Amino acid sequence: MKIFAGFVLVFLFIAIMPLHLTNAYLRTSSFDKVVVKQGDNVWAIAEKYARENKDVRELADAIHEVNALNREGRVVPGQVLKVPILVNSHN
Questions:
Q1: How far apart (Å, rounded) are the C-alpha atoms in residues 91 and 88?
Q2: Residues 81 and 48: beta-carbon distance below 8 Å
Q3: Coil, helix or strand for 57?
Q4: How confident is the model over 30-80, as pLDDT tens digits?
Q5: What's the CA gap between 52 and 56, in Å, rounded?
Q6: d(CA 24, CA 59)
Q7: Among 56, 60, 66, 78, which is most buried by a count of CB atoms within 10 Å?
Q8: What's this model's pTM, rounded to 2 decimal places?
Q9: Per-residue CA distances from 63 to 27, 38, 48, 79 (Å)
């Protein structure tokens, strides 16, 4: 059982690792805090904060990961989310 759990952890690490290498939002150390309002969802928040030359999916994925949201990414009004922000033009 321990071997299986170890295998799963290694597999998850390998599966997630490329995401950090290619997603600039996951490499940033700058964040805005956003209070979720009624009707908000992760995608809508990502659309507001995504850079023009970046894919909204990258920011939505980063918001999920940074805030440890479940796979569905449900958020509730009043919840505070950290939103990764790209601060220089090279990202």
A1: 6
A2: no
A3: helix
A4: 999 999 999 999 999 999 999 877 789 999 999 999 999 988 889 999 999
A5: 9
A6: 9
A7: 60
A8: 0.71
A9: 12, 18, 12, 13
Phi and psi, residue 42, nearest 5°: -60, -40
Rounded Cα distance between 59 and 51, Å, is 9
Spell out the domain ranges in the chain: 2-84
Chain-centre distance of CA 56, in angstroms? 11
Crossing angle of the two packed helices 42-49 and 56-66, in degrees rounded to 10: 120
Q: Contact at 8 Å (CB) between 32 and 85?
A: yes
Amino acid identity at 6: G
